Structures
1.
Amino acid sequence: MEALTVHRIQFAFTVVFHYLFPQLTMGLALLIVAMKTLALRTGDEHYNHAARFWARIFAINFAIGVVTGIPMEFQFGTNWAGFSRYSGGIIGQTLAMEGVFSFFLESSFLGAFLFGEKRLGPRLHWLAAFLVFLGSWLSGFFIIATNAWMQHPVAYQSGPNGALALKSFWELLLNPWLGWQYLHNMIASVVTASVVMAALGAFYLLASRDQDYGRLFIRIGVTAGLIASALLIFPTGDEQGRNVAYYQPVTLAAMEGLFRSAAGAPLAIIGQPDVQAETLDNPILVPRALSFLTYRRWMAEVRGLDAFPRDTWPDNIPLLYYSYHIMVGLGTIFVAVLALAGFLLWRGRLYDTPLMLWVLMLLAPFPYIATTAGWMTAELGRQPWLVYGLLRTAEGSSVAVSSGNVIFTLLGFAGIYSVLAVLFLFLVYLEVERGPEPETQAGPQAQTAA
Amino acid sequence: MIVTYAVLDGFDLGVGIVHLYVGRTETERRTVLRSVGPVWDGNEVWLIAGGGALFFAFPKMYALAFSGFYLPLIMVLWLLILRGISIEFRSHIESVVWHPFWDVAFAGASAMLAIFFGAALGNIVRGVPLGGSGYFFLPLFTDFTTGGRVGILDWFTILMGLSSLVALALHGALWVTLKTPGEPRERARHLAGHLWWATLVMTVALLAVVPLVQPHLGARFPDEPWGVIFPVIAAAGLFAIRWFNRMGRARDAFLASCAYIAGMLFSVAFGLYPYVLPSNLNTAASLTIYNSSTTAYGLEVGLAWFIPGILLAIGYFIFVYRSFAGEVRLDEEGY
């Protein structure tokens, strides 16, 4: 196998696995702050028990997120030396800022939050929860700032040894690509956490146990999930799409499977792109919708793939097209399901509608799939560039590291991550079994937080 | 940054190395682990922040060194994963099979990391085969000599690795002496006495062989004699450890150990300057702070946010360390 391909597979595998965990913790951090706030406001101990339960789930996810996150930063140097050498003067800034401004905050106060409820008292404990939330959302910001720069490089000038150097710090942080991508991503993490919370609540109700907590989880999960999934589509998803149309028009054409430029371009709901024949097979189209969504005019001209030189086309158009359609399709389904659940909740009938509880419970894995598909859209859409318009992916990998060595480490990662996945599922299962109700005959173990 | 990481994560690595010995029963081991519980991942963040600082300030060094040390670095990542989950997951299940497994994993990963970090420093001191192409790639080992086609492991870097192992084990034993009550404390103190002799022997051995491997390292001291302060701090720290440990002044012994580690690392950094990654083939191909750094603007911007950021972080640290100050007690929340 060619070394470049193995470098790409290893990065894709490690980053997809890694991001399964932070997307839950970032969203959950917000929901835990909400629960701690409700506990302070209402004085209802249920909220504190619920927050403690989710903090245990958070801690397991956080631990795996941290240990699988360190390899991401290292791999820029180990596997993508060409890229690091070329753009380290810029993206090193945002990555180091993540370490300095968010990891210190997050890790210091997570310890205080998990182990210090008694020592800190209710108000300081709320503050610790809030600072964990702030740290994790800042961390997301700096990572998205890094990715946004790769999608739409700004604030650079040529520096020593043919590398890039930073021209303006503020321009880097005010990248026009950054704001919408950040909001879109963070709101997606709220959807993941909300759906997981509602699904676990539905499981408790269906299993006829911990009913108070089951209702509480559903109430918070469905409410937060409905708001977040709506915001995911409009305005953040819509604006993100318009950013792609403006800065990466060839990516938009590939995502939508639009091979030929057209005025009044249709939106493909379903269909299979055939890159050889440059057609979309078995299409179901909404006439003129793509023109309207992109330019707000029904008859606007949308450039198709034929308007761009072939060597600037993304190199895996079908996978990009499917990733994008899976993301959008699932996003739409989330709004529909959560709106229905929200309606039943409002009418007071949700807890007694087993069919809806089943749907909520089985919804749990889908936000993870949608988020992964969303990131695949962003990353495959950027191809063939590593830094859009400046550095091709083929020029970014470590030339000194041979294919055989990367296959060795890829297999190592695959093995270790499989073990992590098994441990993770096992430990989360134990926590779910144990439930949120504090054990009454408290031995020394009962209050062990993590 | 790197020195702070070594001093802070050094003690929790050291605790990992010695905890099987100093903690004999489940309760004792839990006490020992709790002394690092609330702080270990904060300490580890220094590694990430240090890596990030290296990345933006010396992108060329980051790219060349990380791809050149590919295999050992990826193995360090695996060890960090194993160590991180050992300490986080051991408390989740009460079982006589589960706990010992994670204890051994934690001790093994900690010891291996200490050796790897020492060996990594050894590689930088010895130099790497930087030639014309600009990139290099080191196999794990070749013929264990320090000249020509070198590998990551040779007799010198192994010696550095073992020195780092005993020095960090000593550091960890002193931390346990400071933070835990009862039996583990006595055992740790006793162990620190033995480890001190091992550290002394290794330090003297390193001093004897370094001039053979990297003659450049001592060359700067005659011209700029103020640099002698670093080795003096290291030596004073080393002897102070012995003194304070025998007197039973645990806090001072631990601080002396911090001074020893910091003094050693600063001595190396001072000696290597201006090189950051010397070439063992051709001095002209070495990376210096001048030919591998980014532009002045980038460095200024970096410093402008880095210093307040680090001060903030130190503020959190003081808060958390103070909240959890004092000896570990088992009746509280925690691991």
2.
Amino acid sequence: MFIGNNLIELDVVDSTNNYAANLLVQTKLVSGTAIMTHFQTGGRGQRGSDWISEPGKNLLFSIVLNGHFINSENYFLLSKAVAVGINEALEDVSGKTGFVKWPNDIYIDQKKIGGILIENQWKGSLLEVAIVGIGINVNQVNFDDLQGVTSLSLLGSKNYDLKEVMAKVFEKIEFYYNLLKRGDINQINHIYFNHLMFSNEWKTYDSNNGRIEGKIIEVKENGLLVLKLRNKELMTFEFKELSFIL
Amino acid sequence: MYMDLNEIQELIKFVAKAGVNEVEIEQKDFKLVIKSDYLAKKKSNFKEEPTIVQQAIPMASMPSQAMPVEQPISAPAKVEAKPAPADSEEDKYITIKAQMIGTFYRAPSPDKPPYVEVGDIIKEGENICVIEAMKLFNDIESEVSGKIIKVLVDDASPVEFDQPLFLVDPS
């Protein structure tokens, strides 16, 4: 195992991704270095939206990965590998079936349990370093008004050891990262599609052109989603152009 | 077989007088088709109004496709010379382009100042913007050193692959 072999544990930090990025400015980090914290003051979801987490209850960590084998045309493959790894780890721990909601949220029982935020540092068209930020709801059971959210504890009615869950996530991400590094791209695409919420099912979505019915038939290596419509027409969507109706 | 324009005109007159709708002449490397919708119409008119005297068919009334004769293709009306760039200074600037599609951000996060402003001197390898795509944040480094002359895209707007983002003066 190289992921988590170097582990930095912080009581409080603004965000583990920021911490990793600042560290990278000062020094070189071994690929697989992980930074975990018990509380984030500036945890982020997608730009602008915050990740709400009670102190000490959830997994908040970042992994620094070398991405030299990834280019600007297939960079979403790393996101696929990480999402599949987390999903399998949470399935193992919870005993439930999880799904990756395009592009890279983790859902169990139609509720969000984990999120990924990857920051890529590019050198030309090659990925120099990826900072993979991961948040997983583990022992938090009260989410106030937040709808559509769950945690391992809510699902399993017990508390989990944070570091045991994290070790499982490291192990699974490492497996898929190594597949990707070996160039098993078809397998990554295939497994991601198998884990994908609503893949190959007729569903209704909200799009820029209103409600549409379609079937997800592919998520490309740059992350674009391909929807097949009832009239057999294919439509391609960027993130934010298509919303799921859960 | 070769026919000049006069011969073809004679042939068309002949065809018109003969009252046929279509004549096709084909040889090794020559093909001439004469069709006459006009004649066909007139003929049908004759059936209804047989008293009308047949008139000479004016050349102009021949459908143009009836003469698939090679004609010189008229040259494009004008080829406009591109105006010389008003500001030849632009030539020495380098454009930094987007290497992926996504949303362009000038600052590392909403509460932080932009990475670079116009007039700033940047070094190769320095972060200059973020492109968010598929919930992935891509820190874009400059591949050149120089002075930022212009920021070509508004903050938080979508960018296409290869879209120019910054104008840099490398000197």
